[in-house]
């Protein structure tokens, strides 16, 4: 028998005949969503066919064809511009634009959580997390203070402007090169407050401890937290402790809340990004996530990477003191820089274009990422911020960042564009362009 | 990074692009298929289509081993994972492939012990560490990965490991290419040949394509310049009316392949009489299974798998995308009901699937892309 | 098709002939080199790594030849462009 011969189903072995193909069980909600998509597609196909048939009636010999671009606005029966001698639209180009429009509409539609159980994707900081937040939490709790979904909520209390944030830390392993869960807890909370332009004032610390967890480890973690708080000039003013049975809580989980004071009428927020704005990052990306992945020891990779966990309030203070025109600040944690860029693009309905060449990545982080098939842009940092700055003030902002030890390797990585709204693009080192979408799933090593 | 960065030079790319354009006969359309999912990924990731003249269309082939696994086999794997004392190990790419009842990822959320590994050898480590459990490795991939699985089985045998087996879904590339060539739906002018598969099988197996079907083949590397150079070499052949097999990836691919790797495969595995491929149907002698000598490591014998054929969901057009008949965005549910977050079929969930590559990287028309990069 | 990365062989593991430590841009990993048992592999050699195995030894001469072809194309292109612009000036 020649390899590769496509066998007719009739030539199958008898054993196979017994079990014919089955359709997968249809789930009611799923099916309707698919049916809707199919309906929209068929509708568009019918419209297009009608348009093409009408066009065929308008043809002259030399082949006047509608310019591809006009199809975007045209609806059946609307006036159309027929350009003589315009180039034949590429076979399929028109179709592609219509499809992309449909996809755009689908992406903007109301978020729904389709799964019936929580998966690890919901915690990765990407699309699933966002959908969960919007469809479940925002939907239930909705109020004007929550809606901006920034790193910290901004409140007015008796004439003062406060920033409030909360975070939970579930990192594994608890101790890793560059720090531990305690460092993350304090620094991370401080950073969320700093991104609102707030001066951090105090933190709370709630602990969920697993039965059997060594007290010595707890002391180590707490010592780290004290040191981190001292460095940042904040105090941990209240807390809570719970213990759960062996097997739950993976050693130690920490939850924090942070309170800060916003001075004057400073207003930062990603929705303020405007076309022309400059985007900068305060240092090499992906250090923390790669460190954690390697520290788990499952991948057998040794590398000289350490977590970049650090408090950024000093860096932010310098930046805001020395430069005007800072529109927004975000610290890049789960989901990495790519997630931040997408949040900016969506919140402000702008496009973003970044240059791969300009994004700082340590060689070892790049090597580990290549080995694992992941993209550093999606890997968590814990001591890096992304700033959106008015172009008139960009140079000063960059200088301010670089002047501070936490921002020594700051770099301008791209800028905000008007089109296409909501889309982040990357100009590759190679010169081509590609999209940088929201992370889907957990960064899975690409193997095959 | 050495052997990587040098093959990403933009100026050389422009030069190659100009040469390629020069070789296009006026008024003629060219369709070149890149077989490997890895090539599809590179093409979109680096925006290579921006460099090609409009006369050349790249058609995406079925060389994505995750994409071609039919739903029934995914269900079989899920059944294996669900066995009470089984630890299922799998490459990351398989984790979100949808079966009839969700994916590995969903099963993991329900409590099934499924672990992601980087190498099949990691599964051996897990087996050694968990003597009271049975570890099953979901073996997928073309001939690139089969030798690694083979070596792992040999090592397990040498160690006398009693709690390790593989669920073998390795497939071979040549039958898939032949099925494409024989398909009446497609008229291709040339092939960008698989890169890493060729390190194992060499370039000779593609000679029938040039000799019997008259289509040029160039085995290509995975950096952007590799692919552009390969397209250049194909266009050169086409302009001269030639059809031979050439090796652009000669720094990695030996013309005769890797005999040690082939021997390892031959020792542990043999061809199945036929195997079902998503979209391409049943293809004879296109997949591998564990040899009787190593039956102790064959999960299909150690466990009972349902072995039920499951048709793709009616909305799914993965089959046609895999054959190159449909472009990803021509699938009725592309990007709307089927997205990387909520995949209906495999092409959208594997990082090397054409739909995933297009959705994640290339999802703008050429005009929009050019506008954006000028702003 | 499948993810393969070039890495440099640093050393062989003394008690395990099939295993070698490789370096990829500063990141080190132990991989199995059993598939290259036919080749003479030495520290400093470069290999293609795939799922924890070395699949092929990278031929540095071929790599150099490939690069010089590519550079040549780039240079020839630049020369042509230059010639084109010169002829315009006249």
Overview of this structure, please?
The complex is a heterotrimer of chains A (448), B (375) and C (90). In chain A, strand 14 and strand 15 (433-435) form a beta hairpin. By secondary structure, chain A is of the alpha+beta class. The longest helix of chain A has 31 residues, at 28-58. Chain A contains 11 helices and 15 strands. With 375 residues, chain B is α/β, with parallel strands linked by helices. Chain B contains 15 helices and 13 strands. In chain B, the strands form 4 sheets. Chain B has a 5-stranded parallel sheet. In chain B, strands 4-3-5-6 form a 4-stranded parallel sheet, with helices on both faces. In chain C, 33% of the residues lie in helices and 33% in strands. The longest helix of chain C is centred in the C-terminal third of the chain and has 30 residues, at 60-89. A 5-stranded antiparallel sheet of chain C has the order 3-2-1-4-5, with no helix packed on it. In chain C, strand 1 and strand 2 (19-24) form a beta hairpin. Chain C is elongated. The chains are: A alpha+beta (448), B alpha/beta (375), C alpha+beta (90). At the B-C interface, helix 1, helix 2, helix 5, helix 6 and helix 8 of B face strand 1, strand 4, strand 5 and helix 1 of C. Strand 9 of chain A pairs antiparallel with strand 3 (27-32) of chain C.
């Amino acid at each position: 028998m020649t390899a590769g011969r496509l066998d007719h189903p009739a030539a199958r072995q008898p054993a196979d005949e017994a079990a014919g193909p089955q359709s997968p069980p249809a789930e009611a909600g799923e099916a309707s969503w698919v049916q809707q998509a199919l309906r929209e597609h068929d509708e568009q196909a019918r419209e297009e066919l009608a348009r093409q048939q009408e066009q065929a009636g308008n043809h002259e010999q030399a082949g006047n064809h509608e310019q591809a671009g006009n199809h975007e606005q045209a609806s059946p029966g609307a006036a159309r511009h027929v350009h003589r001698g315009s180039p034949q639209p590429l076979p399929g180009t028109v179709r592609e634009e219509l499809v992309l429009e449909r996809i755009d509409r689908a992406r903007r539609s109301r978020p729904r959580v389709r799964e019936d159980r929580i998966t690890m994707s919901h915690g990765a900081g990407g699309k699933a997390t966002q959908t969960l937040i919007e469809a479940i939490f925002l939907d239930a709790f909705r109020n004007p203070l929550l809606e901006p979904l920034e790193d910290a909520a901004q409140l007015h209390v008796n004439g003062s402007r406060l920033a409030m944030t909360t975070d939970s830390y579930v990192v594994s392993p608890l101790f890793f090169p560059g720090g531990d869960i305690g460092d993350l807890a304090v620094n991370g909370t401080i950073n969320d407050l700093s991104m609102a332009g707030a001066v951090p004032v105090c933190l709370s610390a709630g602990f969920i401890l697993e039965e059997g967890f060594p007290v010595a480890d707890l002391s180590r973690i707490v010592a780290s937290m004290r040191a981190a708080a001292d460095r940042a000039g904040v105090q941990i003013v209240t807390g809570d402790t719970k213990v759960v049975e062996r097997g739950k809580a993976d050693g130690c989980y920490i939850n924090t809340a942070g309170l800060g004071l916003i001075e004057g009428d400073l207003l930062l927020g990603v929705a303020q990004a405007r076309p022309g704005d400059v985007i900068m990052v305060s240092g090499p990306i992906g250090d923390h996530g790669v460190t954690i992945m390697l520290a788990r020891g499952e991948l057998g990779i040794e590398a000289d990477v350490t977590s970049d966990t650090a408090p950024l309030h000093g860096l932010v203070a310098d930046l805001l003191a020395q430069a005007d025109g800072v529109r927004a600040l975000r610290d890049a944690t789960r989901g990495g820089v790519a997630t931040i860029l997408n949040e900016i693009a969506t919140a402000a309905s702008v496009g973003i274009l970044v240059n791969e060449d300009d994004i700082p990545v340590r060689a070892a982080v790049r090597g580990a990422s290549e080995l694992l098939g992941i993209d550093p842009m999606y890997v968590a940092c814990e001591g890096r911020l992304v700033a959106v700055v008015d172009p008139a003030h960009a140079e000063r902002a960059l200088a301010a960042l670089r002047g501070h030890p936490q921002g020594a390797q700051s770099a301008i990585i791209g800028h905000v564009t008007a089109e296409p709204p909501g889309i982040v693009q990357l100009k590759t080192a190679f010169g081509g362009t590609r999209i940088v979408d929201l992370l889907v799933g957990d960064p899975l090593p690409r193997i095959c | 990074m050495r052997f990587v960065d040098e093959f990403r030079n933009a100026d050389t790319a422009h030069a190659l692009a100009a040469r390629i354009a020069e070789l296009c006969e006026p008024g003629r359309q060219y369709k070149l298929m890149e077989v490997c999912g890895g090539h599809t990924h590179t093409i979109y990731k680096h925006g290579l289509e921006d460099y090609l003249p409009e006369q050349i269309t790249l058609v995406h082939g079925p060389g994505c081993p995750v994409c071609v696994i039919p739903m029934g086999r995914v269900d079989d794997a899920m059944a294996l994972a669900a066995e009470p004392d089984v630890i299922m190990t799998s490459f990351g790419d398989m984790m979100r492939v949808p079966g009839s009842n969700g994916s590995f990822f969903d099963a993991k959320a329900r409590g099934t012990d499924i672990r992601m590994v980087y190498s099949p050898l990691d599964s051996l480590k897990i087996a050694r560490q968990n003597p009271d459990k049975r570890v099953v490795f979901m073996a997928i991939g073309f001939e690139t990965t089969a030798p690694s699985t083979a070596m792992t089985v040999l090592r397990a045998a040498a160690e006398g490991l009693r709690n390790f087996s593989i669920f073998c879904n390795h497939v071979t590339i040549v039958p898939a290419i032949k099925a494409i060539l024989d398909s009446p739906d497609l008229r291709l002018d040339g092939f960008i040949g698989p890169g890493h598969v060729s390190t194992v099988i060499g370039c000779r197996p593609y000679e029938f394509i040039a000799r019997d079907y008259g289509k040029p083949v160039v085995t290509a590397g995975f950096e952007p310049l590799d692919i552009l150079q390969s397209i250049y070499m194909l266009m050169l052949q086409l302009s001269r009316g030639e059809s031979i097999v050439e090796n652009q990836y000669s720094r990695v691919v030996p013309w005769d392949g890797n005999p040690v790797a082939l021997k390892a495969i031959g020792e542990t595995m043999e061809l199945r009489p036929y195997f079902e491929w998503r979209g391409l149907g049943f293809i004879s002698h296109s997949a591998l299974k564990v040899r009787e000598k190593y039956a102790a490591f064959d999960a299909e014998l150690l466990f009972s798998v349902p072995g039920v054929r499951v048709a793709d969901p009616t909305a799914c057009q993965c089959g046609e995308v895999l054959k190159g008949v449909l472009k990803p965005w021509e699938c009725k549910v592309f990007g709307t009901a089927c997205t990387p977050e909520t995949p209906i079929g495999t092409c959208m969930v594997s990082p090397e699937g054409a739909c995933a590559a297009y959705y994640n990287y290339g999802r703008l028309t050429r005009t929009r892309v050019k506008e954006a990069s000028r702003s | 098709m499948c993810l393969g990365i070039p890495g440099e062989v640093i050393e062989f593991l003394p008690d395990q002939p099939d295993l070698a430590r490789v370096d990829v841009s500063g990141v080190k990993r132990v991989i199995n080199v059993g598939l290259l048992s036919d080749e003479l592999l030495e520290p400093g050699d470069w290999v293609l790594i795939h799922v924890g195995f070395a699949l092929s030894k990278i031929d540095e001469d071929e790599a150099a030849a490939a690069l010089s072809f590519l550079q040549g194309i780039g240079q020839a292109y630049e020369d042509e462009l230059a010639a084109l612009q010169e002829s315009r000036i006249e």
